[in-house]
Amino acid sequence: MKIVLLGPPGAGKGTQAKSICNRFSIPHISTGDIFRNHISKRTPLGIEAKKSIDRGELVSDELTINLVEERLMQEDCKIGFLLDGFPRTVIQAKALDEFLENKGEKLDTALLIDVPKDFIIERMSGRRVCLSCGASYHIKFNPPNYEGKCDVCGSDVTQRKDDKEETVKDRLQIYHDQTQPLINYYKVKEMLSIVDGTQAINDVFKNICDILGSGNK
Ligand code: ADP
Ligand code: ADP
Ligand code: ZN
After folding, report:
1. Is 85 in the pocket of ligand 1 (CB under 6 A)?
2. Is the CB of 179 under 6 A from ligand 2?
């Protein structure tokens, strides 16, 4: 199963990605998590990416595409994968198609988690993340069992610097300008599926499972 998750920042991509990847036993590839990991380790890539991320801007296509292609070449992606946060531009989507085509493969679906703008600010201002394992929580909708600690790995959960309200507005604008066109890109290719992301976390997941089927792909 090869899936791309689409949706605005705060739609619930990361949250659903964890459940989907558990259910279908495929690796979860989140470009945001990979960048944050590089940033915390202060690698050259992290230092470069941080400049854009802190401003709410996108990291360059070239750097991002290279990173994802390298990841997709690893052994565990042979059975499939779920891409979360990539592609984010039409250039990235075309690069992904080409990369897969060269290997005689293609995506099964591009799954859009559809959430209107009105929900986004509250979701993002209450988001807390675990920098160790990437788990995502919400102070109101999905709090960790012990305040401030990750349920999965016990590390501290914190607010992302780019989840401040000012940066969120810029990110939404960038989503509108650069990422939203991907919805039509996949629609034209008859690869788009849409799930209503305004429901409770478990209900969204149930609908996603209905769309993806039994996982025998
Ligand atoms: P969210 O889950 O809120 O949508 P992510 O964790 O996916 O955010 O991404 C955080 C930041 O990392 C983005 O705002 C952007 O700066 C950078 N980033 C992540 N994925 C990409 C990508 N595919 N192309 C360019 N920049 C990216
Ligand atoms: P994305 O990866 O798309 O940016 P996240 O999965 O990090 O989004 O979710 C954004 C915030 O919204 C997190 O705080 C998360 O706990 C919360 N959240 C995710 N899905 C839902 C939902 N269906 N209802 C309410 N809150 C949600
Ligand atoms: Zn954790």
Report:
1. yes
2. no
* 143: in domain: no
pLDDT tens for residues 127-178? 999 988 889 999 999 999 999 999 999 999 999 988 988 889 899 999 999 9
The count of structural domains within the chain is 1
Question: What percentage of the chain has pLDDT greater than the value 90?
Answer: 88
Q: How many Å lie between the centroid of ligand 1 and the Cα of residue 184?
A: 20
In a domain, 12, yes or no: yes
Residue 159 lies in a domain: no
Contact (CB, 8 A) for 61 and 72: no
Segments forming the whole domain that contains residue 97:
2-122+172-214
pTM over 0.90: yes
Q: How far apart are CA 20 and CA 208, in angstroms?
A: 8
The candidate with the shortest Cα–Cα distance to 54, out of 145, 131, 166, 157, is 166
* 94 annotated as belonging to a binding site for a ligand: no
CATH of the domain at 116: 3.40.50.300
